[in-house]
Every structure is written in C-alpha cells, then in structure tokens.
Sequence to fold (724 residues):
Amino acid sequence: MFCIKPTLLVFMVFIACAYPQSPDGYNLWLGYDKVGKPKLLKEYKDLTNSIYFEDGGEVLKTAKKEMVTGMEKILGTTLNFTEASNTNNTFLIAKTATLETSLKEKMSDDLSEVGSEGFVLKSITHKGKKLFVLAANEDIGILYGVFRLLNLMQQHKDLSTISLVEYPKIDLRMLNHWDNLDRTVERGYAGFSLWNWHKLPEYLDQRYLDYARANASIGINAVSLTNVNANSLILTPMYLEKVSALATVFRPYGIKVYLTARFSAPMEIGGLETADPLDPKVQQWWNNKVNKIYSLIPDFGGFLVKANSEGQPGPQNYGRNHVDGANMMARALQPHNGLVIWRAFVYSEHDPEDRAKQAFSEFVPLDGLFRDNVLIQTKNGAIDFQPREPFHPMFGAMPNTPLMMEFQITQEYLGFSTHLVFLPKLYEEVLDSDTYSKGKGSTVAKVVDGSLDNNKISGMAGVSNIGNDLNWTGHPFAQANWYGFGRLAWDPYISAGTIADEWLRATYSNNPDFIEPVKNMMLNSREAVVNYMNPLGLHHIFDTGHHYGPGPWVHELSRPEWNPTYYHKADTKGIGFNRSNSGSNATGQYAPEVAKTFNDPNTCPEEYLLWFHHLPWDYTLKNGYSLWDGMALKYEEGVDQVEEMIETWNNAQPYITKEQYQEVHMLLKIQLKEAKWWRNACLLYFQTYSQKALPKEVEKSPKSLEYYQSLKFPFAPGIRPQWD
Ligand code: BDP
Fold:
C-alpha cells in the first residue's frame, strides 16, 4: 500500500499553504493565503473575534469589503461584526469623531499626528480588556489602515503588541501611464493599455477595480491616464465621459484622475488660431474646458503637462516661458482645487549646452514664480531614467517651488519586462542622496517630501509598468517595482530591503529559507544591470529609438544628443563625458560640497566616474585595475551576477509552484543572454578605441562587432512611430 509518512505530510501541507492563491500573478501582492501556523492563527482570530466597523460612505464601505475579502482568506473563517460597538468587541474600527471619549483621549496624540490620510493601529488595554483599534481622522485613513493590517497579517507579524502610527509623508502619490488612445503604451512592456476606450463608458472591466484596489493597498492616490506625449482628443466630451466612468470606479479607493493636457489643444480641438498662454481667448478656452471637466468629474485632479520637450508644443512656441504656460492652466484649475504638474524634462537640439544642464538652466531662474497649485515634475536624474544617474541638480536648487519626483517604473532602460531588476534600490539611492542645499543632510527625500523647504504640497510620480498582461507587469518581479514605488511614495525613508521583504512575503512565501536568498537576489539585481549595461557612470548607450540592447556605436541621428557617442565620447585616448569644471561644468549646478566631490576623479564616486570625467584608458581605478580592465571586469561581473540569480532561483524551487519557477527561470535565461550581448557588444566596440586585450577573467565574444551592429529590431515593444 502507498503510504505517506506523517512528517512528509506535514511538510507537503506546509508547502501547499505557502503557495499564493493565484499562481498566474493576477492577484499581485493581494493573494491572502491562509495562515498556516496554528498559534499565530489563534492570535489573529482572538484579535478579530468580535468586530465593530463604523458604517459610512463609499470609502468606508470599500474598506470594510476589503477587510472581509482579505481577512476571511487569511483566517479561513467568516468575520463576526456587531451592529453597534459594545464591550465584547475585540476589534474596533472607527473614525476619531465617533470614538468614545475615553478612547479618543487615549489616542489623541497619535491621531493628531496622522492628518487626513493616516491611521493608528494599536493593541491597547481598555476598560481592563485587550482591544485592537484601527482609528483615523478620515475615511481614507481607515482604508489605508485596513490594507496595512492585511499586509502585516500576510507577513505573519505579531499583532498582539502592535502600535503603529502611520501617515503618508508625500501628498501626491501618483502613477503616470504613458497610454495612448489606441491602447498602445509608450515604453510599455506588459501588453496593451488597461483602458479600453472603445468600450468605455458603459463597459467597466473588472480590471479597473482590481487596479484601484492594488493602488490603494500601497497608498497611491492619483493616476494620470494618458501619455505625456498627449493627444488633445482626450479633452473632448466623448472621451471625458469615458474618463469620468473610470474616475467613478477609482473614487471609492481614494484615487483621483489626472489627464495629460496637450498645450495646443485650444487650436486642435477648440478651433482657436493660437495657443498663446497670454491670449485671453486661450485662457478662457482652458477655463471653460476645466469647468466642463469638473462638471463631469467633481474631484478631478488636474493636468500633467509635457511642454516644449521632444517636439511637444508649449509656451515657448509663442515666445513665452514655462511660468506663463503653467500658470495659465493653474488659473483655470485653481477654483476647483486642481493641480498642474508641469514636467521639467526639457532639452533642445538647438542648444549646444550639455543636455544634462539644460533643464536646470531653464527652470531654476523661474523658482518662486509658479502659482501655488503648480508642481514641477523632475526626473530623478538630469538625462533620462538611466540604470544609474547622479541625482538631478534641480533637487535642492528651487526652494520656493514644490519639485515632484518622477521615477520610471517601466524598464525602458533596464531590460524591459524581461530583466529582473528591483528598482527600489535605484529609488532609494536617489532619495538618500545629499543635495547639501541647506547643509549636510539635505537629502533628495527631504526636498521631495517638502520638509526641507516647508513646501505646501509634495508629490512623487512613477511612470507605470502596467499593461493588460495577465500578471499586469510582464515580469512577475516587476510587480515588486509597482509595489515598491507605492511604498516609497508613502514613505521615502523605508529601505529597499524592507520593501523586498514585505513584497516577497505577501506575494510568494513567508519561509525564511526562501525569503533570504531571493531577497538578496532582488537587492543585488539593480547593480547587476548597471554592471552589464552601463558600468562606471556610462549612460545612454542604448540602441536607437526602442532602446532595446546596446548601441554605443550609434552616431548618425539628426539630433546630436540622441546619439550614444555624445554620451560616452570614447576615443583612442579614453572614455567619458567631462562634466567637471574643466569640461561642461554640469558639476557647477550642484551645491559646492557636492560639486567638489564630483569635480575630482579621485573623490568622485566610481559609479559616476565616466558621467563626470573623460579619463585615459590606463587611468588607475581604486581597486588598482586600469580603467579598461576595470570596465571589462564590471561587464563580466554583471553577467556573473545573472548566473548567480539563476542559481538562486533554482534553489527556490521547493517553495514555489512549478509554474512560478518556470516563468521566472525562462525570463532569467533571456536576461543572461542579453547581459552577455551587452558585455560582448560594448567591449568589442570600446576595444576599437582602447586597442587593449581583455583581462583573462572576461569571456571572449563568440560573435564579431559587425554582427552585433547588424542586429535590427523593428518590432521591439514600447515604441511609438515617431521614434523610428
Ligand atoms: C524618454 C522616452 C520617451 C518619453 C520621454 C519623456 O524615451 O518615450 O516620451 O522620455 O519622459 O525617456 O517625456
């Protein structure tokens, strides 16, 4: 007879419980597995034995629904709610206004700290009994508190002594979708756009709701639906009705909708002859348009604008500046409390100045001139979402203007959705950078959350990596980047390690034998991609247009700063862009302490070396290797790191399903192939200048440079026709 040993049975049950509900990835980090540990389960059941959940509007109702959905799965039992609060309640969920006086007094310090969106989650002793309390000043705080509680349970945290006082450090926590009206997604690698414009407004896809749930669970409270390379049609009545339908789905989750506004819309859809921001007819057109939007969407967030950047129309077409343009829209939005998010991603082909300096030169003189409801959205670095960039010098340089951080979650320059790269490491590095604008400790995080300069409003945006792929983000691990962005927008001081830990537990398993190695793999993955793509401060050496794979040799594009050769400047003497005070002096845009460090190759952190310096091939690196050898070894290290990732994932097999293993394994194989492609192509190309042999540790390329240069990818994903 076939018989399973009891110990094996226990082991099998344990493994089965470790599987998330839906191995296809659709549930994201909201899979809510039943807690397998009996003691912990009992603790959770005791805490939630008798629940009073305050009744209220749609956000509170949503919070209650989410609690039921999540907790019933986690506990494997139905929840017991009481109509009114009573002394037998073990768990009380209520807003400050309805708390009984003695409880209110007990919690008043905490509640005064958490503002309108925060919450207090505490296990206290009340009238001689243990009471678990979730309290907040507003409905939305309760919703966030419910999601955090579920998340803590998913992580199997002990709640019996919990005392959590939480509130978002940043006001606007926003996703920017670069989705076109034809459902293609610029720089999107996870399928087509979620927004089915054709079927809206009548047909509301379940995904809209699941998308809102996921966002709210990590505190995202704003979404811009459309591409920054905007189409004016989105502002026409037909599309606004569709937008309104989406806003209605998102509202119960505390999410406001924003749209990208094309600056020339008054001409394209309004029949005006100009879009000059100082023309009263133009101002009136925007006022009317905005009024119409608010009549359909009373809580509309505002406009996100890309103007005079990469060919987009803007105020400069009429001899005006960014202040004129942004303030015109701000005037229209102000009566409705709407915001203008004006992007600082500008550079011009007619401006011979180093591209890295141009945004600063254009915007810093305008500090303090924007209206109160304008935020300037600034990419994390001065070029463009590279695998590594020093922080943008505008951070810290505009104390009288709220600077909103723009990170890219979609992996345009980080291997699309085929490479496993945990981006919170990148975000953390930027946020922790010290601008020195008000002395030591003036970190980018403090600029962005507004605490350094006492800004009235603050924001962080992430360019979304979401599409209609079954698992939302293409790569299962790219979900962690969406999750991590949300967590950092809520609190820019949380560590990448904490985020990885939380996400792994909520998504895969709580088993420490799984968590530790996989977490390390995630935390090292960003450095791996830097090593095999852009080590030592190299940047923008991607193939043209689609940015898929290496193209350091590209030099014939019409705009000089679109050519990789502009950025690496390799020649027989050496490599790198001299942005020091002996070169373009981009370093001069930083505070003197930072500039000093960057100016000298001996003090410049080596990860930024070739960003700021053009150095001879035999320049000696800190580890004693020549620049050429050191660079080649970095490329090799990147490839080796991917090999290690594959090994780590192989060892993780016992803790995940076969499908989960297989999916990431196949993707890692592609990543390895492409890491080798990067190493081989870049080293062969740079070798034509260095004329030096590769160090023996570096694997030789099986193919020639001509082969790599001949590769063409006309159908690489994420591109829009005008970038061809
Ligand atoms: C670049 C992208 C381009 C975007 C642009 C932007 O290649 O598709 O339109 O950024 O941020 O990175 O506006």
Observations:
- Residues 284 and 332 are 8 Å apart (CA to CA).
- Residues 1-21 have pLDDT under 50 and may be disordered.
- The longest strand covers residues 119-126.
